[in-house]
Write a structure and sequence with these properties.
Layout (H helix, E strand, L loop, with lengths): L4 E6 L9 H9 L14 H4 L2 H16 L3 E5 L6 H10 L13 E5 L5 H13 L2 E7 L5 H18 L1 H6 L1 E5 L5 H9 L2 E4 L13 H9 L4 H17 L6 H14 L4 E6 L5 H15 L7 E6 L8 H6 L4 E8 L26 H18 L4 E6 L4 H22 L10 H11 L5 H8 L2
Parallel strand pairs: 2-3, 2-4, 4-5, 5-6, 7-8, 7-9, 9-10
Antiparallel strand pairs: 1-10
Helix pairs in contact: 1-15, 3-9, 4-9, 4-12, 5-6, 10-15, 11-15, 12-15, 16-17
The structure holds 5-phosphoarabinonic acid.
The site of 5-phosphoarabinonic acid has 14 residues, from loops.
Length: 437
């Protein structure tokens, strides 16, 4: 059984006629669009103890020599790792000594000021890094790695630098593979049949997550549990199918924007990972639910008004966490000037959960249907389950929508324009056209 529950009590009145078994069959028989990118389906069960051991040994070696560990990557080559690391780290990780290297990200933007600050920081810290790019040709991580490779080699010398760099890329093709082989970096492979946004349980996610001090065995075990559950429950009661069917029913009823809601700020990057997963998988052919995210109660004070009374094309999916890891109670105060004594003695989590109930009821009353995804706690095992839950939910939902959930043709458009405007050889004609506009 899975620890994840899906509650649909607040989406009443929206129904769709889907047979989940049909869509599970499309996935498992590999007969749907994009079926050469289904490596994620049995990825968890194909991870061997030897492989986990190898990643852990490398991670331990890097942990020992690093105050800071830099993860160079973008999109699917960075969001999964960050989602898990931030969900399982101390909220103030960068200010407290947890015994773990501080994980820092690069190659996910082109900001000169960001890079300049990073270089100044790395001048003073012992560090190592991983460069992650399946294609090996993505501009942002390629440029960042060029700069950081230069820095690390100057700081430690070429021989030591190469012990501090791990490359994660395609097994055969791509510039990064060629570079890694010629420099002698330790490399890990991104499997051919796993797309970037489905790659968190490959070395793309597992190595940085292990360096951060997370038990990757537990993470993988959670995903394995969910994989097994899905194989054994290919019907409309499967929680991944319930989620997919509900969001498709809502989409076809005009709820074209889905807001993923959390009440735990440590899940903020989990939402960023989810946005890429669902946005890239479904947003094509003029179709697809637009994925957005909020952290409540914080954003109730900024986005709450729109959600309550704005354009009625919204639905929410709430990730509800039953048990926090810690306990904090609200103290009584003799003066009671803030008039909070009526909740004195209660746990902060009781107030948080009450805010969740109150908000769901208000938003549902305001015309925003709510799906609740309930998890018992945030730990590595549950996160592993949740990752696989959303991956399977996405594949089912994409097939129900009638799109290929595994390609992303649209992301090339800006890249071509950028190459042309930067003067990349081969793009001269497009450059002429763009400069006239
Ligand atoms: O999902 C995707 O395909 C993208 O987000 C890619 O992961 C991202 O562009 C990075 O690509 P690469 O790993 O080839 O550098």
């Amino acid at each position: 059984m899975t620890d994840i529950k899906v509650e649909l009590g607040h989406v009443k009145g929206f129904s769709a006629d889907y047979q989940a078994s049909t869509y599970f069959k499309t996935i498992y028989s590999r007969t749907g669009a994009g079926n050469d990118f289904l490596g994620w389906v049995n990825l968890p069960s194909s991870i061997t103890p030897d492989f986990i051991r190898d990643v852990k040994v490398k991670a331990e070696e890097l942990r020992k020599k690093s105050e800071v560990f830099v993860v160079v990557g973008i999109g699917g080559s960075y969001l999964g790792a960050r989602a898990v690391i931030e969900a399982l780290s101390n909220h103030f990780e960068h200010l407290v000594d947890t015994g773990n290297p501080k994980i820092i990200y690069a190659g996910h933007n082109m900001s000169e000021d960001y890079m300049s600050d990073l270089i100044k920081l790395l001048d003073k810290k012992d560090y190592s890094m991983t460069v992650i790019s399946k294609s090996g040709t993505t501009t942002e991580p390629a440029v960042a790695f060029r700069i950081l490779k230069n820095h690390i080699e100057k700081k430690y010398g070429k021989e030591e630098a190469k012990m501090r760099i791990v490359a994660i890329t395609d097994k055969a093709k791509g510039a990064l593979k060629v570079l890694s082989d010629s420099e002698g970096y330790k490399t890990y492979v991104v499997p051919d049949d796993v797309g970037g946004r489905y790659s968190v349980l490959t070395p793309v996610g597992l190595l940085p997550i292990a360096v951060a001090g997370v038990d990757i065995e537990k993470l993988v075990a959670g995903a394995q549990l969910m994989e097994k559950y899905c194989v054994e429950n290919q019907d409309n009661n499967n929680v991944t199918a319930q989620y997919a069917m509900a969001r498709q029913a809502l989409y076809h009823a005009g709820k074209t924007n889905e807001i993923l809601v959390n009440y735990e700020p440590r899940l903020c990057y989990f939402s960023e990972w989810w946005k890429q997963l669902y946005g890239e998988s479904e947003g094509k052919d003029g179709k697809g639910t637009f994925p957005a995210s909020v952290t409540f109660t914080t954003d109730l004070h900024s986005m709450g008004q729109y959600i309550q009374e704005g354009l009625r094309n919204l639905m929410e999916t709430v990730i509800s966490v039953e048990n926090p890891a810690n306990e904090v109670r609200i103290p009584a105060d003799d003066a009671n000037l803030d008039q909070m004594n009526y909740i004195a003695g209660r746990r902060l989590n009781e107030v948080n959960q009450t805010a969740e109930k109150a908000t769901i009821l208000a938003h549902v009353d305001g015309g925003v249907p709510n799906i609740r995804i309930v998890i018992p706690r945030i730990d590595a095992n549950v996160l592993g389950q949740l990752i696989y839950f959303f991956e399977m939910g996405c594949a089912l939902s994409g097939y129900m929508l009638g799109v290929n959930p595994f390609n992303q043709p649209g992301v090339e458009a800006y890249k071509k324009n950028m190459f042309a405007l930067l003067g990349k050889p081969g793009y001269e004609e497009l450059r002429e056209k763009l400069l006239k506009r």
